[in-house]
Design a protein that fits this description.
Blueprint (H helix, E strand, L loop, with lengths): L8 E8 L4 H11 L2 E10 L6 H14 L3 H6 E8 L1 H6 L25 H16 L3 E3 L15 H15 L4 E3 L7 H23 L11 E2 L2 E2 L5 H16 L1
Parallel strand pairs: 1-2, 1-4, 2-3, 4-5
Antiparallel strand pairs: 6-7
Amino acid sequence: MATTPRPSLPHRALVLFSGGQDSTTCLAWALSRYEKVETIGFDYGQRHAIELKVRPALLEKMRGFSNDWNNRLGEDHMVDLSLIGQISDTALTRDVAISMQENGLPNTFVPGRNLLFMTVAATVAYRRGLDVLVGGMCETDFSGYPDCRDDTMKALQVALNLGMATHLKVETPLMWIDKAATWRLSEELGGKALVDLIRSDTHTCYLGERGALHDWGYGCGKCPACELRARGYQQYAQTA
C-alpha cells in the first residue's frame, strides 16, 4: 500500500512518463502531492522502444496503490516525435555501439531531446489546464547530458512561460539525489510494493534487453543506464 500522501497542493501536474525507473518514481511523487496528475510519453524512434510497451500496464498498477492515486491519475498522452529519430544520429536512435564522443559526451546523448519533450509537454499542459511539469532529470548521478542539468531546466521554465504567457512550474524531484536515493524515495512514496514494481515492470536499459530479471530489474547490465540503476540498487539494498 502507498504511504499516506501529503496534503495536495492546488495544482494539476503533467508528468513526463517514459516507463522507466526515474519517471515512475516521479509519477509517484506527483501523485502524492497534486490533486490531478496526467502523464505524457514520446515515441521518438528510440532503440529501447520496449519502454513504450510497458507504460500502459505500469499506469494501471500505479492506480492500484491507493484510492487517492487512482482518483488523481488522469489521462495519458502519447506523442509521436519520430522527427527526433530522423534528424539525430545517436546510439539511442541508431543500431550502433555505445561510446564516448570527442566532445566528452556519450553517443547516447540525443541533442535537443529534453528541450523538445518539455516544450511539447508545456503545449499539452496549456491545452489541458495543467500548471506543473514534472520530469526525472538529474545531474547528481547521470551520464553528463547537458539537457538534464538544473540550469537548463530553470532556463527552460523561464523561456516557456515567456513564450506562452503562462505560469508553469518545472519540477525535477530527482535533480539533486543519486540513484540509491531514488530507490529510497520510491520506498518512501509507495513502500516495498513500489520498489518491487519498479524492479520488475519498468524499463531503463538503452539496448532494450528484457531477458533475465536481476535484483535491480531487467537490462543488459552493461549500458550506462543499467550501470547507474544497478549500482544505485546495490547501495540502496545495503542500507535498506
